[in-house]
Specification:
Layout: H1 2-14, H2 17-29, H3 32-39, H4 41-58, E1 65-71, E2 90-94, E3 106-107, H5 108-111, H6 120-125, H7 128-141, E4 147-152, E5 177-181, H8 192-200, H9 209-222, E6 247-249, H10 251-271, H11 288-294, H12 304-310, H13 328-344, E7 346-350, E8 360-361, H14 375-386
Parallel strand pairs: 1-2, 1-4, 2-3, 5-7
Antiparallel strand pairs: 4-6, 5-6, 7-8
C-alpha cells in the first residue's frame, strides 16, 4: 500500500501544472456539490448584477470600509451586531431563516439553490455558505480600496463586538492584508496543531480525524506533502488564530477565500457523499436541536437528513457533530480558513479598542511541503471547475 501511494505521489509530481489543474477540476465536478455549483454560475452572475444595483440604491457602502453581519433568523437581530451603534455602515447577510431583515441585505437565497438558507448543504456549512456567495460577489459590490469586514449577529455575546471604528488606520494595509480582532477569538498562543491535538481527545480512540480530513484535502487538491496544521502556528505569547468569520480584507481576498471554500466543499462532498448510509441506531436528531433553535443558531429544527449524514460511521470528525450535526462541514472549513489566512495573506491582529489604530503584524509562517497551494493555482482550479 505504501509503495502504491508513493507511486501515485510521484506520478502527480511529474504531471505538468495544467494536467494537475485539469485532474483536480474534473474530480471536483464529479461530486454532487461540484456539479450543482458549476451549473449555478449563471444564476450567481445575474444575482450579483441585481444586488449591486440594489446596494447602490441603499447607500450602504459609504467610505472605504463596510461590515457584513451574518444572521440565521430575524427575531432577535436588534439585540445583536446589527443593532450595535458601533456597526456603522453595516449590511445584513441572510445565511438562514425565512426572510431578510431589510431589502438592502445580501440574501443567499437569491444567489443559489444549493446554498440557499436552510438547504441541506447550508445546514452543514452554516455561515460559510453565505460567505462563499458574498465573497464571489465582493469585487463587483465594492470598488478598489474598499475593505469588507464580517462578523456574526451574536458578536457581542461571543465577546467579539463590531470592530472599533471599523479598524481605523487601514490606509497602509496592502492588497493581501487580512485584519482580525479579539479579545475572545479563541485560545491565545495556540497554533492549529495544538488545537487539533486537543480536539482529538474527544474523538473516537483519540484519533485526529479533523487533521486527517484536512491533510487529505490538501494532498488531493494541492498535491501537498507537508502537514497543513504546521502551517498555522502561533507564538506562545501571541494572540488566538483567526477563528470563525471575524476578519476584514479587500474584495479580492474575499473572492479567493470563497473560491477556496467552494473547492473544499466540493471535495468534502466527493469524499463524504450523502448517499452513504448512516448508523440507524443513531439517526435521530439530538434533543439539543430544540435549544439551538430557541437561541437563534438554527432557523429550523427539522434537519433530520443532516443528522443522518453527520452520524454516518465515517463522519465523526469532531465531538460537536454528536450534538450539532448542522455544522459538520463548518468546523472543517473554519480550520481550512485559518490555514488560508496564515499562508496566503498578510495577517494583522487587533486585540481591543486600545489597539484599534495599531494592529500587530503576525510573522509569516514557514511552510514546508505546500505543493501547489498558492493563489494562482487556487484561482486556476476554480476557473477550470466552476467557471
Amino acid at each position: 500500500m505504501l509503495r502504491l501511494l508513493a507511486l501515485l505521489g510521484a506520478a502527480a509530481a511529474s504531471a505538468t501544472r495544467a494536467e494537475r489543474i485539469a485532474a483536480v477540476a474534473a474530480s471536483l465536478q464529479r461530486s454532487e456539490f461540484g456539479a450543482r455549483f458549476a451549473a449555478e454560475a449563471p444564476r450567481r452572475a445575474r444575482a450579483t448584477e441585481a444586488y449591486a444595483r440594489t446596494l447602490a440604491g441603499c447607500g450602504r457602502l459609504r467610505g472605504n470600509v463596510s461590515l457584513w453581519v451574518v444572521y440565521h433568523a430575524t427575531a432577535r437581530l436588534r439585540e445583536g451586531a446589527l443593532g450595535d451603534p458601533r456597526a456603522t455602515h453595516a449590511v445584513g447577510v441572510r445565511a438562514a431563516g425565512p426572510a431578510v431583515a431589510s431589502p438592502c441585505d445580501f440574501d443567499a437565497g437569491a444567489f443559489s439553490e444549493l446554498l440557499a438558507p436552510d438547504s441541506f448543504h447550508q445546514t452543514l456549512m452554516s455561515e460559510h455558505s453565505a460567505l462563499i456567495l458574498l465573497g464571489l460577489a465582493a469585487p463587483a459590490l465594492a470598488g478598489a480600496g474598499h475593505r469588507l469586514g464580517t462578523c456574526s449577529w451574536k458578536a457581542g455575546v461571543k465577546g467579539r463586538p463590531p470592530p472599533c471604528e471599523l479598524l481605523r488606520g487601514l490606509a497602509g494595509a496592502g492588497p493581501r492584508t487580512v485584519t482580525y480582532w479579539g479579545p475572545d477569538a479563541g485560545p491565545a498562543g495556540a497554533g492549529l496543531a495544538r488545537h487539533q491535538a486537543f480536539v482529538a481527545r474527544k474523538q473516537p480512540g483519540g484519533e485526529n480525524l479533523m487533521g486527517a480530513t484536512i491533510g487529505a484535502f490538501f494532498r488531493d487538491v494541492f498535491h501537498a506533502t507537508g502537514d497543513p496544521a504546521a502551517w498555522a502556528p502561533m507564538d506562545a505569547d501571541g494572540p488566538a488564530l483567526p477563528w470563525s468569520n471575524y476578519f476584514l480584507a479587500a474584495p479580492e481576498v474575499w473572492r479567493d477565500l470563497a473560491m477556496f471554500d467552494a473547492l473544499a466543499s466540493a471535495w468534502l462532498d466527493g469524499a463524504r457523499p450523502r448517499t452513504t448510509a448512516s448508523n440507524a441506531s443513531a439517526a435521530a436528531c439530538p434533543a439539543t436541536y430544540g435549544d439551538l433553535h430557541g437561541q437563534g443558531v438554527l432557523a429550523k429544527v427539522d434537519v433530520d437528513a443532516n443528522c443522518r449524514y453527520c452520524r454516518a460511521g465515517y463522519w465523526t470528525n469532531w465531538h460537536r457533530c454528536r450534538v450539532g450535526c448542522h455544522r459538520c462541514w463548518s468546523y472543517v472549513l473554519e480550520q481550512l480558513n485559518v490555514i488560508f489566512f496564515r499562508v496566503l495573506s498578510d495577517l494583522r491582529y487587533v486585540h481591543d479598542d486600545a489597539r484599534c489604530g495599531a494592529p500587530a503584524a503576525l510573522a509569516a509562517p514557514r511552510v514546508a511541503g505546500r505543493g501547489d497551494f498558492d493563489v494562482a493555482f487556487l484561482r486556476d482550479v476554480y476557473a477550470a471547475a466552476f467557471g
